[in-house]
Amino acid sequence: MNxxxxxxxxxxxxxxxxKARIExxxxxxxxxxxxxxxxxxxxLHINHRDFPxxxxxxxxxxxxSNYSLRQDVxxxxxxxxxxxxxxxxxxxxWPHQRLIESIVLMGSIGTIAQSKxxxxxxWVCVDGTRYTQETISLLQKxxxxxxxxxxxxxxxxxxxxxxxxxKVRVNDFGITDGESSGxxxxxxxxxxxxxxxxxxxxxxxxxxxxxxxxxDEEYLAVIDTVKTGESPDPTWFMDLGNLAKLDxx
Length: 249
What we know:
Elements: H1 3-28, H2 34-45, H3 71-80, E1 102-106, E2 120-126, H4 133-154, E3 158-164, H5 165-168, H6 182-196, E4 198-202, E5 204-205, H7 216-225, E6 237-238
Parallel strand pairs: 2-3, 5-6
Antiparallel strand pairs: 1-2, 1-4
Helix pairs in contact: 2-3, 2-4
């Protein structure tokens, strides 16, 4: 069995696991909160005045990589916005550019610790090299509006954390090093992300293709085996760095 076949098998296994965890999240949600879970990625994908999270500024980041409209999302939108005529033709508000790489849940959600009061903590992964300080600020405002809508209208506590992929790759979470033990905190955050994350929509971490205990050299070698147009395709993934670097001394 060659390397490409190995990575494909690993991907299929982890996709099944991720799907099972999403199903568990939904199963444990109350009926009134289930539609919100489906709608949140949609609200990041679009920016339209008929939906929560809208900002007038045309530079507002939107568009979620590899995102498509599923029936469960359509059904949830009909439940939450029954009088919204824009739902009759969503293609007209579909973004041409996609500036959000992935939306990922982390924490107790999807585990045996999930309860009715569990917070929904999302990493919103972006390629910071495509952003200016203005667009980061706009994205934060958009996310804050969605948080407020989920809380006020549906009693669902949602928190978004913008994560710039190129910084996460080197364990940079904006935490100060030194007496605050910032570097150790950063490693802890990445470890927590790895052990609890659920990809809700968008690109997948390259971690998913890696065998256990992968060196930096092996990590890069596996990435080199994926070719555009083949399965697994590199456009499905984001490079958050090698997990071997979590072994902080």
